[in-house]
TrEMBL record, chain A:
Domain ABC transporter positions: 1-212
Keywords, alphabetical: ATP-binding, Nucleotide-binding, Transport
Species annotation: Agrococcus casei LMG 22410
InterPro entries given in the database record: AAA+_ATPase (IPR003593), ABC_transporter-like_ATP-bd (IPR003439), Metal_Ion_Import_ABC (IPR050153), P-loop_NTPase (IPR027417)
Stated name of the protein: Zinc ABC transporter, ATP-binding protein ZnuC
GO molecular function, one term: ATP binding
Automatic annotation (TrEMBL), chain B:
Keyword terms of this UniProt record: Membrane, Transmembrane, Transmembrane helix, Transport
Family, as annotated: Belongs to the ABC-3 integral membrane protein family.
Protein name stated in the entry: Manganese ABC transporter, inner membrane permease protein SitD
Signal sequence, start to end: none
One protein family per Pfam: ABC-3
Gene Ontology, cellular component aspect: ATP-binding cassette (ABC) transporter complex
GO process annotations (BP): transmembrane transport
Domain of life of the organism encoding this protein: Bacteria
Membrane topology: Multi-pass membrane protein
InterPro entries documented for this protein: ABC_BtuC-like, ABC_TroCD
Annotated TM spans: 7-27, 47-69, 81-103, 123-142, 180-199, 211-229, 235-256
Amino acid sequence: MTGVTFEVQAGEAVALIGPNGAGKSTLLQALLGQLKHTAKRFEVPTGAGQIGLLPQRQSVTEDFPVTLQQVVTMGRIPHRGILWPSRDDRSGVQRALEEVGLWNLRKRRFGELSGGQRQRGLLARALASDPKLMLLDEPFNGLDAPSREQLIAIVRRLKARGVGFLITTHDIDLARQVTERTLLLNQKQIDFDETECALTLEQVQRVFDHHAVEIDGHTLATAEHHNEMHHGDVHGRPEDPEAP
Amino acid sequence: MDYFTRALIEAVLAGGLAGLVGVIVVVRDRAFFTMSLTHATFPGAVAAVLLGIPPVLGAAAASLGLVGIASGIGRMRAQGASVASGIMLTTGFALGMLLQSVSTTSVNVESFLTGSILATSNGQLVLTATVLAASALALLLFGRRVVFESFDAAGYRAAGQKPIVIEMVVLLMISSTVVTLMPVVGSILAVALIVAPAAAAKQLTRSTTGMFFVAPIIGIAAGVIGLLASRALEVSAGGAITLTAALIYLLALLPWRRFRSMVKTS
């Protein structure tokens, strides 16, 4: 992957959009320092826990005997708080849980929470280390509408407090709802611009290649249409172009 | 100290150790690996007897060698850990039988297979206590990390941690436990005493923290009850201990689930 130039400012959300194999995960790994890269300029927050990650849902073992509070405490590991949680660690965990509205459920077994609650729990884990930059990997996959709304509201609140977000997604509507700028990626950079400018029909077609053109074209067309008809109340969702 | 007192103390120590390390085995899904490891210690013990050294040393050498081989094969993606474990299991066992059949010295194979807790020596007591203390210390230091890494390996790496450290600690803990338990309940039965108490604890508690306390208690109960039952009923101690552990697991499994669904419907 070459020729990628982008930035995420404090309080800004950037969407990272591209098909599977486009290099989204590679880019996230590089940002986390897990891959070698030859970038000419590469600046990420380097302090302990300053980058938070919300992994894809299948990455965690959902039927695992841990409480929600234990999961969120894991987020304190960059501060070594996982060994003997200090007062700082405990208050960080509490703040993160309150932030996502799950403090009351902290003693529940993680696997007994609903899908949306688990996702918010993992978001709290990432928040527990007080990150400056949050990487969300397909955060809205498999969530029902209310859970998505809650997640979006949390992201907006955090942005207002100066946290920067890089969000990978297939969901163009969601990119429009929560991100200011969009990085379109398919092995190389297709575009990096304000979300509205980047997500034009032509660009999305280029990124998702031919087999998805119809689907995304349809969504984009109807989104505009719906916007006019229903005052921005858009629920149309592009189908996952990778779906079999 | 008479032989039965030593056996009782060993049942407490071994039950506690099996329960404690069993939690790691259960949360990391390593039951099958542990089983193959227990069988792999068998040829080591037989070879040690033939060489005239303590069986535990032979078992330890064999398990260390096999941990190395297993992690090598396990790294080959196409093979996978369970294939490696399966081959190790049967190979180890076959090797032990072969060694025993060609030897001129008589080897009491049965004691290696089902254990001989009534013949517990003072050395065995010291060994079990040492491994128990070392495992407890390792869990105090690394327990939360092991739980994190087992729960979400990718997240653990993303947090800038090294999974290989966790894997080494875990392998060392499991193999030393297997070697220590072999004289108590034998190669074949050890895995049940390791896995059953932790699996029962998983049913009864909400989190790993609870499991780390409950599983050793169940392990100790299985050891002591099994030993006392074997004396009362004049049956094999290793068999009685293992069956007690399995029974406790079943007890933990059945009523608890019914109770939970009752709570949910009410």
